[in-house]
Write a structure and sequence with these properties.
The structure is a homodimer. Chain A has about 325 residues and is of the alpha/beta class. The first copy, chain A, contains nine helices and 20 strands. The two termini of chain A are about 15 Å apart. Chains A and B meet through strand 16, strand 17, helix 7 and strand 18 of A and strand 16, strand 17, helix 7 and strand 18 of B.
Chain lengths: ~325, ~325
C-alpha cells in the first residue's frame, strides 16, 4: 500500500506492507487524514517513533476480525489509544498501550490502518469527511472542559493561534466565558475574529496577572513562560503542547503564585462528534491546504510553515 | 537593635534601626526564630530582597499602634503576608503585599519586628517556644491538605528529607494515606522511621509511575524530574520548593501523563496551632542546632549544610 512513514527521515512509499487486523480489530481504508503538530514533533524525535505517521483520519471499515461485523462498510473515525484488552481504566493512560501513528502502531497516513473495533465511531451522513477529520483534535480541546470546571465568569486567554489554539477558543467560548485568543499571525487571528472571538497579538497582551485560566497551545516554551505571567494567583494553566525540546525554566512562580498546571491531552470522541454538527464551529475554515498522499513529504513541510493551519492528506482520488 | 541582615552579603549588626509599628501594627520583641530554606535562597538572590531576614519566629508583643491593645504582653506567632489594608482576598496573594523578611518588610532575625495585629496568633502556655517556632512551616505543610483532597487510600511519596519534607510527611500521614518519605540522608530519614513513617533513599525508590501524589520538597530540579517519573497518569505533583535557579526541563511528560502540578506555599496558621499540641508531631526532634543571634552568620552556614534540619536563633539569654 501507499504510506508516509518516518524512520530517521520522512519518506513516501508505494509498497509499504499493509497492516493485518488482529482479533478484535478492524481494517480501515483511509480516505482522508489531518496533519497534527505531534506528527511534526515526531519527525524531530518526539516519542522515538518509527513507522507510518498519522492519527487524525476518516475512513471506511473494510474488514473486521471479530464476530460482530456490523461496522463493515461504515464511514468511521477512531480513538487513537489502544490499551491491552484486559485494561479497564482510561485508554489514554493504559500501561503498554499503542497509539495510532505515535507509539507502537502504524498510523493513518496510508491506504490502510487498523484499530480495535471498540475505538471506532461511525460518522453521521450529515457530516462531510473534511469536517469529521477534526474529531480527534476537537476531542483534545474538549478535554479541557472534562478536566477542569470552566465557569461562565472565567476570564481566559488561549495562547497560540495555531490549529489547537483555534479549536480550544471555539470550544471554550461555548462555556460562556470571557475569552481572548492570542497569537502571532494576524491572518490566523482573523479567522476567529470572523466568528466573534476576541483576539490580540501575543506580544501586545497586557501581562497583568489576572486571568483565571490560560491555555498554552503555542507549542513553545515561551508560551509557558508568558502563561505564568498572565495568570492570577491560584489560576490554572492548561498545558496542551507536547514538545520534543527541553528548555530552561524557573518554576518559582508556580509556587509563589500557587498556580495549577494541568497537563491535558486526548479527549472524548462522543461529545466531539456532537460538536461537529454545531453551526458555530466552522471547522473547515481551518483547512489551509490539501494534498494527495503521494505528496505527503511536501504536505508535512507545508504544515510546518507559519502560514498553515490544518493540512489534509487525501487517499482517494 | 541587633539584627541579621542581607544586602549583597549577610551581616550581623549591633545597631540596626528598630522598626516602628504603623497604625494597626504591633511591635514584637522576638525571642526565637527558625532558619528556612527561603532565607538561604534569598542570600543567593531569590526575590531580590535586602534587609533583615527571617519569617519564622516566636515573640512577645511589646507595643500596639491601634485602639485594641489586648495582645500586649502576649506570646505570639505571626502570619508573614501583609496585604494592603483594603484587601479582602487571601493575604498570601494580595498585590503589593509585603512579606516578613522576604519582600518589602524587615524580618524576625532581630530583637524586634513589626506585623499587622491581625496577623498575630497568641500561643497557648502549653506550647514551648521551641515548638511554636514551627508554626509557619507546619502551616505550609498543611496547605497541601487545604489545597487538594488527600484521600486515605492515596499512595504518596514525599521527596526530600529536609525540614519541609519531614513536616509534610508528618502532616500527610495523619490523613491515613500510604506514605513514603524519600531522601538522601539516612540519619535524617531515621527521624521519621522513629515515628513509624516509611522511608527510603531517593535513588532506591522504584520508579514505576504509580503514585497518586508526589510532594516535591527537595529544593532541587532533579526532584521535579523524579516526581514526574514516579506519578501515575493523572497524578498530582505538589511543588513546595521555591528555587532561585532556572533549570532545563521538558514538560512533555506533564501533558502526556496529564499530570496536575500544584504550586503550593503559605498555609493556614489556625490548624497549624492546633497540630502543635498533637503527640505525633515531634517537632522539636527536627532542631539540629541553636545559636545566639550574634552568631547568625554561622547559623546560616550551618543551616545550609546537608546535615542540618531546623536551625534556631535565640534572641534572649
Amino acid at each position: 500500500m501507499r504510506a508516509l512513514a518516518f524512520r530517521d527521515h520522512l519518506e513516501f512509499s508505494q509498497n509499504y506492507p499493509p497492516p493485518q487486523p488482529s482479533f478484535g480489530e478492524a481494517l480501515i481504508r483511509v480516505s482522508m487524514a489531518g496533519i497534527c503538530n505531534t506528527d511534526l514533533e515526531i519527525t524531530k524525535g518526539y516519542m522515538g517513533f518509527s513507522g507510518v505517521l498519522g492519527h487524525e483520519f476518516v475512513g471506511t471499515v473494510e474488514q473486521i476480525n471479530a464476530p460482530d461485523c456490523s461496522l463493515v462498510g461504515k464511514r468511521v473515525v477512531g480513538e487513537i489509544n489502544c490499551p491491552p484488552v484486559d485494561w479497564s481504566g482510561p485508554s489514554s493512560h493504559a500501561p503498554g498501550r499503542c497509539v495510532l501513528g505515535i507509539s507502537g502502531r502504524n498510523g493513518a497516513f496510508a491506504d490502510y490502518c487498523t484499530l480495535p473495533v471498540r475505538n471506532l465511531h461511525p460518522v453521521s451522513d450529515l457530516i462531510p469527511s473534511r469536517r469529521a477529520v477534526f474529531v480527534e483534535p476537537l476531542a483534545a480541546a474538549l478535554r479541557i472542559l472534562d478536566d477542569i470546571h470552566i465557569k461562565p465568569s472565567h476570564r481566559i486567554v488561549v495562547l497560540g493561534d495555531g490549529k489547537l489554539g483555534q479549536l480550544c477558543a471555539r470550544v471554550l467560548r461555548r462555556a460562556g466565558c470571557d475569552i481572548i485568543l492570542a497569537g502571532k499571525y494576524p491572518e490566523k487571528l482573523a479567522l476567529s475574529v470572523s466568528l466573534g472571538i476576541n483576539t490580540c497579538l501575543s506580544d501586545e497582551i497586557e501581562e497583568i496577572a489576572d486571568y483565571d485560566v490560560v491555555v498554552e497551545a503555542t507549542g513553545s516554551v515561551s508560551g509557558f513562560k508568558q502563561a505564568l505571567r498572565l495568570l492570577r494567583p491560584q489560576g490554572t494553566l492548561i498545558l496542551k503542547s507536547t514538545l520534543a525540546d527541553t528548555a530552561s525554566l524557573n518554576l518559582a512562580l508556580v509556587v509563589v503564585n500557587e498556580i495549577r498546571v494541568i497537563g491535558n491531552r486526548c479527549g472524548p470522541f462522543a461529545p466531539a462528534l456532537r460538536l461537529l454538527t454545531e453551526p458555530d464551529m466552522h471547522l473547515e475554515q481551518l483547512i489551509t491546504s490539501e494534498y494527495p498522499l503521494e505528496d505527503g513529504v511536501v504536505a508535512m513541510q507545508t504544515a510546518a510553515s507559519n502560514e498553515s493551519l490544518k493540512v489534509l492528506l487525501h487517499m482517494e482520488e
